[in-house]
Amino acid sequence: MDIEHLLKEYEHHREALLFGRYINSDHIRGLLEKHSTHIDLSIIGCSVLNEDIHFIKVGSGPKKILMWSQMHGNESTTTKAIFDLLNVLTQSKNDFVRRLLDSCTLGIIPMLNPDGSRLYTRLNANQVDLNRDAQDLTQPESRVLRNCFEDFQPDFCFNLHGQRTIFSAGERNKPAAVSFLAPAQNNGRSVTKTRKIAMDVIVKMNNNLQSQIPGQVGIYDDAFNINCVGDTFQASNVPTILFEAGHYHEDYNREKVRELIFQSLWVGVVEIVFGNPQGLKEKTYFEIPRNEKLFFDIIIRNAKLKTGEGHQVSDIAIQYDEKLEEDRIVFIPKIDKISDLSDFFGHREIDANEQLVFVEDHTELSEGISIDFVWINNKKQSLSV
């Protein structure tokens, strides 16, 4: 089954019961039951608040790939993509899928941090970032992942995350819709054989994405931190890839990016199983632009602002705070910066043309305040998603 076929059939494979940014264990429980006749499903541990952590095995082949999602509870896009992939693997009667599953075994933890997922927070219930606990293993979720890694003995790892809307793909007006990384495995960030093999797979995934989102794929910072899980597993000489689900134009629910991650999971698995990466594409990997922090959600340019001393003309950067309200995520506009933002980009840009920008009560606009709209030239401009 080639990627063109998957593109055409994606809506058939897309898991309709998962949508938006808020995904907790309640949302996936029924889906695990749905797939239970086609997968090996087990409970491999519990969270701080005693929620089950599930492990899925699908396929029976010798090449083993371990992947885990929602280590950070508010990074749910990759979880949606995992269940899209499971629909292909468990429901397709395609000969290629059968051959794939005869050649590999996928081990999947769909939600490593169920407590953080329920609260929509990066941290676990003990307020610990699990991605800084790879060495000390102070948290039950960290120990679950390490034990799984040691028991499953993968040949490859996919570390699945989501990133903020602030990232550009290089120093240009292109958001990083998807980012990858072959993590370093030592302080010198040596380009080891293990990293090179991971780089080969990233190059293959990037080639696919460039045909759809040209210039919108980035490489995440490779500073070494042995406390991070990906760096620890890479240092154990298991090729590991970081996936970062980013921002696509007007896609705050991350549904387009979900599809791009789904494709990347498929392309990555197929390349590992049948492409036999040898670590020969290092140069091409380093041609992918590095992530830069050059985006805001909204920039109001050339805004005339009332100050204590009169008026000034400046740019206003607005960033959304994500807040859980009644089982859904709301995006609250907040002024992040008032300055000359000539070197930055907005996912949405408004030119005030040096007209007065104000809110209804004429509160002086300042960094840190939340506002739903502004008035510009007597016209109300909503700042909502």
UniProtKB/TrEMBL annotation:
CDD domains: M14-like (cd06239). Residues 10-385 form the Peptidase M14 domain. InterPro entries: Peptidase_M14. Pfam families: Peptidase_M14. One of its GO terms (molecular function) is zinc ion binding. The keyword Protease applies. Coiled coil: none annotated. The keyword Protein biosynthesis does not apply. GO terms for biological process: proteolysis. Its cofactor is Zn(2+). One of its GO terms (cellular component) is extracellular space. Keywords: Hydrolase, Metalloprotease, Protease, Zinc. SUPFAM superfamilies: Zn-dependent exopeptidases. Belongs to the peptidase M14 family. This is Peptidase M14. It comes from Gelidibacter maritimus.
